[in-house]
Design goal:
Residues 9-227 form the Glucosamine/galactosamine-6-phosphate isomerase domain. The chain is α/β, with parallel strands linked by helices. It contains 7 helices and 10 strands. The chain binds 2-amino-2-deoxy-6-O-phosphono-alpha-D-glucopyranose.
Length: 244
């Protein structure tokens, strides 16, 4: 779906999230949301905060799982996704802290495999993701599933692509400071969500959106695997859709 601009598109995504939360509330169930970081979802989070403050949308029945975190990464560091989520969403809503899950960037290397299995199990134990929102990196990554990721991959430690590290260099004050690794949900983990929304704005994303939507399905552009999913919607602004 192509919208006139980013803010209209963000409002639509926020309303979809709010509908899921409210319909679960009516059934006295938890809504389980897969969340993303980066510039792309910020407008969605702003709109959710507005819905909370002005329209009383409650997040007390919401359980969240974030897609990824740099590794290694301390949660209180400026660039951590823990900090990002607190600042851009969690500190401004009534979500219960125990219901928030973000991959742990402080683990010892030998503990990561078990931790990742447990992350998957936690998602299953609460009934699976009702909705996963995604941005897209210029390598075609979703989460941090870089080129070469398998369609059935699970949560795991990955090596970041050079282009991804270059794109992150501004946040870290130089590429050399960007971690070389990350913990990310896998493509297989994302596919298990009952609904997937991939968002992209601006001209900068137009070439990778063309590849993701119209290109040959291949691990070289992990987002092309979404062509195989039936429950996925690409929500774009005019510029991101301009090469389709
Ligand atoms: C990071 C995140 C991805 C995100 C991508 C795009 O690599 N791990 O989940 O989709 O950046 O970032 P942005 O939304 O800032 O363009």
């Amino acid at each position: 779906t192509v919208y006139e601009n980013e803010s209209i598109a963000c409002r639509k995504v926020a309303l979809r999230i709010s509908d899921i939360i409210k319909s679960k509330q009516r059934r006295l169930e938890n809504a389980v949301l897969g969340l993303a970081t980066g510039a792309t979802p910020v407008g969605v989070y702003e709109e959710l905060i507005r819905l909370h403050k002005e329209e009383g949308l409650s997040f007390k029945n919401v359980i969240t799982f974030n897609l990824d975190e740099y590794y290694p990464m301390q949660p209180d560091s400026k660039q951590s996704y823990v900090k990002f989520m607190d600042e851009n969403l969690f500190n401004h809503i009534d979500i219960k802290r125990d219901n928030i899950h973000i991959p742990d960037g402080t683990l010892d290397k030998e503990d990561i495999t078990n931790y990742c299995l447990a992350y998957e199990q936690k998602i299953s134990a609460v009934g699976g993701l009702d909705l996963q929102i995604l941005g897209i990196g210029r390598t075609g990554h979703i989460g941090f599933n870089e080129p070469g990721s398998a369609p059935n991959s699970g949560t795991r430690l990955v090596t970041l692509d050079d282009l991804t590290r270059r794109d992150a260099s501004r946040d870290f004050g130089g590429k050399e400071n960007v971690p070389t690794k990350a913990i990310t949900m896998g493509i297989g983990t994302i596919f298990k969500a009952r609904e997937i929304i991939l968002m992209a704005w601006n001209k900068k994303k137009a070439p990778i959106i063309k590849k993701a939507v119209e290109g040959e399905i291949s691990a070289n552009v992990p987002a092309t695997f979404l062509q195989l999913a039936e429950n996925v919607e690409f929500i774009l602004d005019k510029e991101a859709a301009s090469e389709l």
